[in-house]
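On clarity, I found the account of how folds are encoded harder to follow than it need be. What matters is that the chain and its backbone geometry are given together, residue for residue. For the editor and my fellow referees, an illustration may be useful. For illustration, here is how one protein appears when written out as sequence plus structure tokens:

___
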Amino acid sequence: MALGKTIQYTPFQETSFGYGATEIASNYSSLIPNATDVITLTITYSSGNWDSTGHISTPSVGTAVSVYNPTTQEFVVKGQRQDVDAVLALLKFYPADKPVSRPKSASNLNGFTTLLYKANQTTGNFADENPTAIGNTEFSARINNASGVQKVTGTIIWDPVEPTTGNQRPFFSTTPAHNNYSTNTYDATTGDTLDFGVISHGSDTENVTVKGFFAPFNNAHYTSPIVDTTGALSTSFITDNSLGDFVDVQDLYVGDKIATNETTDDGERFNFTGSVAEAQAFVDNLRFKTSSASQTKTFNMHLTVDDGITGSVAVKTMYHDKALSVSTLPTTQTFKEDNTAVFDMGAVVFGNVDEIPEVNSFKAVITLDSTGTSGATSFGTTTTVDTETFSAGVLTIIDDNLTTFKQAIRNLEFVPVADFNSSFTFTVVITFANATIGSSYASASQTINVTGQEASEVENISVTHNYTEDQTYYFKENTPLQIIHPINQAFKVEFQYAINSQTISEVGDLNTTNTDVTKTTNVNTITFTGTRDQLNDALENLFFTPATDVNQNIRINVTVTRTGGDLTFESKSTGVFGMIGNPQTEFTFDSPTKITWAEDTTVRFLSGLVITDTS
């Protein structure tokens, strides 16, 4: 052996350095040849686990007296070689305490404590299961001769046997599956079995205990079963049978074993101890029964498996399929042609939402009929949500916040295609779900009737105009026809004279000062074509020139038709110009009151007759 060495030790226990009675003489006689040579051996702390709770013993033999200084963390012994060798043989190491690594039975109350329960891990690998590692403690050692010359050096390493729990925590290698208990078998007297997963205990062979508890649904329990700092269950469990129970637990024999009890004051529903295989057989044959056929509420089952020292907790959610109860939505909505509409589904009430507390996703599927689909440029919500899609007439809105979702279906925005004003219907189906658990609750479909309102494309299409015989009538002196379509597209305006056997030239013509439009005349119909803006200017400057001496009332049927853009939903605008004729005075006569004349004499006088006709 030599001065430098590695010694393995049991934590928290004194341990001999393990030097022989002639360690120095046997290994370093060439450097320190005589038994009576005076030497100094120094051992100094270098690194690792060491503090004021650890020390090195200080035996003395003959001329060799040893000292340990806790301040400098240094051990020194000086004397003849033979006496220093004797001290080395007696030297002991007292490890420094490490509270967080001490076992729970240690007197140090800060020591490591094994937690009874932890949240289940299907791998069975609980990373922080063992106490904190102590780690090595390292010292440097040197021997100097009487003149202080260093002759020997070495490194002493203390390697602890790291403490462990010495136990595999029991666990569910397959997590108990969430269960839909809506089938009537769970309402029957005999109840039905559930999926409790797969119990595992690694390589350990001791018995395990499985227990079950019922609790109101709580998402925090689902994501991480609640245990306190000591590893004890800290959830308040249901102690009555309002959420159902297990049938004849005390009569369920597994081999020669049976459950020790059923429902207790702390809410424990079953408690069975046996081998892993026996515990598995027990839970696989448990039969759950509802309190009554009316029980439909979602709740949690907390399931534990332990070996008396350590254990795991898993949560299984029990849910009941049912239709989502939704209040009656407003059955009618309206929109106006060429205008964006907002459809409000009202203050929706979900009647049974308290029965399904696990839901965390809220979805509306709104389906337009074929008419609505063809008439929609876009359809969505003005509320920002997690997911919004509109495709092939189907709008889907999803959000994980119920308040946001309810607001979203009150802010539905429908943008119609140009000129669309047809009435249509859409259906609404609302679904609440929890994808992780697997529960989903859909409402009955409700149908909404949407009424389209036509928007006028023109102004002043039916107006009475008064004209005077033999005088040109300018329409801007009254209220000229105007096209108010929002887009400057192509139009045509037709004026059809209702004049029986007469012709336009016989009653009067329509013209405009605008030269950008095109005018055509076909029998008794005058047509102007051009863009919206061109025609509006032409109509602003439209004038009627009656034929000579015409003062009859004339009915002119007016039709405005868009000829450009998407004409799928285009409809004509029609009206009537009532041209009311006012005759012009042909003459005036102011009769003279007296004419004086003499026989055989020509007399000139004013007759008082004035012809005013301009034609």
